[in-house]
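anyone else get weird line breaks when pasting these?? whatever heres mine. first is seq + tokens for prot A
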Amino acid sequence: MVTRRSLPLLAPLALVACGLSPVAQPTGGVDAGDAGAGCPQALVVVDSDYSSTNVSVVSPSGSVLSASILSSGSVPPGLSAALSGDVVAPQVRPPSGRLVLLDRTNAAVVWVDPATAKVESQLSVATGFASNPHDYLEVAPGKAYVTRYATNAAPGKQPFDGGGDLLILDTDAFTVTGRIALAAAGDGALQPRADRMLLVGSQAWVSLERLSADYSMAGDEHLVVVDPATDSLAFTLDLPDAENCGGLALSPSGSVVAVACSGVLGATTSSTVDSTVILLDATKSPPVELQRFPVAVTLGAPVGPALAFASETSLVGFVYGDMTVMRNDVVFSLDTATGAVTKLLDAGAAFVLGDVRCFPGCGGECAMADAHANALDLWQVSGTTFAKLAPVSPDQAVGLPPRGLGEF
């Protein structure tokens, strides 16, 4: 167990709260057409300056389909509270075809019909406390899990109010039906800190970052695997000497899971302790660690919490910059067959890169949210070769920078 401090809060880019921000004029839903089996119809882009949010829709190749399908500046029917400035999209594309958002500040899940831009429902997952939902995963028709990063210090006042768990949702009735506790005996002061999820075969893989309530202590990373048929833990995998693993990615074949671990982060992000990229054999039960790649040491910076497979043996991610030493965020590719790490882009600033999405077998593009460029950085990928494409600015309504990415 090690002592650590959380990252410094980033100052908002502009005054946008209290009605000071421009209001995006809704640009409606989209007809993205048939993308082909297994391929996304479109990218969901969460544009934010940490005080307000705009949601854009972009084709996988970068064409803007709707500059503002939903934003903090409006409360359409079905939305009881306007979007906050802290909104994310699910790690895994929802099989239902819905556009799904997680509003962390409001502790709510929002379902949108992307064709009409109609808000189907907004469901609170707070259950009486600031639960801080981090991810959403549809595990069966009409059923989804939500990871709740926070743990309730005084539970027992409402149903399902423990936190540090998976909340079980009925996505037809838009109700909470149960929870799966993730705290483990022997964790002491460490809370589960449930973060991102993957659906691997029929099982839900969940990343637990294991931090204390005040973020002063951290333990080694745990991955828990849940059987949605029984809502029970199938097994837990310990990842020793790896911490703060917020990035998960599944290979195109479904046989390998990659994990991005940021490691020990302090007042600056110079440390590379316990920061690594790990490959796991997902065909084994429990999974078996295949290899670790010292990307953080190679690039001299901790790995960020974003990772995607561009091909079966090629990964894309980024490493953190550090404002105290004038080091910028850097996008990298990792050839898992050879271990070669290639710098793809210097972002020109620190703390500006966000989510990444790649589409192997569906056009071969990769997109990275880049707040400094106020654009999506795009690459065309062939094997391990990355050709840089022209960047695209998704929010052509207000101009908020892209931070998060999702799919439908």
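and prot B, same format (seq, then tokens)
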Amino acid sequence: MSGDDTRSRIVEAAGPIFAEKGFQAATIRDICQAAGVNIAGVNYHFGDKEKLYLEVLRCAHDPKFLTSADQLSGDSPVERLRSFVRLFVIRMMTYGEANWKMCLLRHEVVNPTSYGTPMIQEYFGKRFGVLLGILDEMVPQTMPLHKRHKIALSIIGQCVHYNVAHEVINLLIPEKERAQNFHQDQVCDHIVHMSLAALGVEPPMGDEQKIGKLRSVEVQT
């Protein structure tokens, strides 16, 4: 087995383990057993557990995900907000072992380490900037920056909630209801309408007739 193959196997094995247990609880022994290599292999390729963790974080970080407004569809700020939320929700609502990358980032958000903090700041900072750019077109120019920040955090919080609390959601919401009413697009529509209603751009929650008319106008334009 080549050195590159060994390195890749270690990273692929370490990702789900760090995602499940977090940095502190994960052990090099567990990772080596999963990768089918000896501890000397980790020392040779990465030096120590911290450097291995940083490499796994780099693999989990998707530099192409919502890093600029050019990735969003739509001409109006409302359409771009819908595109932003949809992309975010899809990423947040992708579960399972295959999505260990989001689980790892979630661990780093809930229990941050000094190793991962700069990367997490970059990961969320770029998306935060994209969202603020959309909101700047929707709120009065006189609105204080701290209020725009709170609005942006509220929107992001709604999206992230479906990842961080998905196990709690499964306990609270019956499976049949989730299957019928909690698809990614349905969650996206709910978050967007909640946000636009709070901003006064769309009618209050529950006024479905007015919402339908606005959506039809939006599609036609």
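btw re prot B: The radius of gyration is 21 Å. The longest helix spans residues 3-25.
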